[in-house]
Amino acid sequence: MSSDNLHRTQTVSDLETGTSEAIRRHAYRHVLAAKSISQRILHFERITPDQLSCIAEATGAFFYVFPGLASITTFVLNTQKELRATAYGSFFQIFFAFTVGSFIALFVRILSLGHMYPAITIASAMWRDFPWKTVPRYILSQILGATVAGLLVVVIYWNQIRALKEAMLAANQPLVSPLGPAGIFLSLPGTSRNFTAIWLPVHGVLIWTAIEATVIVGITYGAMVWGFAPATTVKDFARYIARSVDQRIFATLFLCGGTFSYRLYFWVAILVHFPVVLFAAATWELFLRERFEKKLRTGTKKMVREDELGGRTSSEHVGFIRTVS
């Protein structure tokens, strides 16, 4: 074999056939050996998309619950102090905390659908072809995320929560009340309130309508807290069942009993919650969705047609006017 042919054998394994012949007299190429893949990376790549989506759901539930729960904690812990709760929080602050938590939480939609809400998961399976086999995993993930958020709040504020518990016991006040230590973790109605607001499907229609719009969903959650919490003394309107179940268990273990039997509100919230959200989703899917999508398609076609003609165009469905050069 000639020296020229020997030179070609050094490039033929590095470059494609034909390319090596073209550059064999003009350039030399050396391909570095690829780094070995670690076992940790191989193990991570074995995680299926379903597992990643469950992790995302748990993360989203955590970020939704934690800011609002922390805000409720500061509000309740300071109601007995001289400066009163207004120096540390208010219903507006709680509204803002849940809204911001929703904004942050819904960014997990990159990996999951961003339900973070058991009733929304079930409604998605009924109306949007979400696989039923994934529903239990999503709901358990949502409960897990809310559980971790509750545990973190307990760890951070445990000394203050215990002091409030001892003070209320000394004053012969009930621990299971909206402004008691159990009220930090639970959705509890006031003694003079009724359960009328829990039947309202308004929030379900709004959330289902704007499920693709992160900002609107966050504002919807916050608006329900803002509008109905003062009337019902329920900080998060008892809508977040993933937070309600596990944190009633917290209150039973760490504070007192009676968290499940207080005015039977836990059972009312669960039994009413799912039908209300499913009714809201059905209202949207059966009566509103087709007209909304038709209007959206018409507006999109109008904007595209005007763009093709050039000049000044306006798009009413997104609310802006722009000039095409």
UniProtKB/TrEMBL annotation:
<feature type="transmembrane region" description="Helical">
    <location>
        <begin position="264"/>
        <end position="287"/>
    </location>
</feature>
<dbReference type="InterPro" id="IPR000425">
    <property type="entry name" value="MIP"/>
</dbReference>
<dbReference type="GO" id="GO:0005886">
    <property type="term" value="C:plasma membrane"/>
</dbReference>
<keyword id="KW-0472">Membrane</keyword>
<dbReference type="GO" id="GO:0015250">
    <property type="term" value="F:water channel activity"/>
</dbReference>
<keyword id="KW-0812">Transmembrane</keyword>
<keyword id="KW-0813">Transport</keyword>
<dbReference type="Pfam" id="PF00230">
    <property type="entry name" value="MIP"/>
</dbReference>
<comment type="similarity">
    <text>Belongs to the MIP/aquaporin (TC 1.A.8) family.</text>
</comment>
<feature type="transmembrane region" description="Helical">
    <location>
        <begin position="91"/>
        <end position="118"/>
    </location>
</feature>
<keyword id="KW-1133">Transmembrane helix</keyword>
<dbReference type="InterPro" id="IPR050363">
    <property type="entry name" value="MIP/Aquaporin"/>
</dbReference>
<dbReference type="GO" id="GO:0015254">
    <property type="term" value="F:glycerol channel activity"/>
</dbReference>
<protein>
    <submittedName>
        <fullName>Putative aquaporin transporter</fullName>
    </submittedName>
</protein>
<feature type="transmembrane region" description="Helical">
    <location>
        <begin position="61"/>
        <end position="79"/>
    </location>
</feature>
<dbReference type="InterPro" id="IPR023271">
    <property type="entry name" value="Aquaporin-like"/>
</dbReference>
<feature type="transmembrane region" description="Helical">
    <location>
        <begin position="138"/>
        <end position="158"/>
    </location>
</feature>
<feature type="transmembrane region" description="Helical">
    <location>
        <begin position="205"/>
        <end position="229"/>
    </location>
</feature>
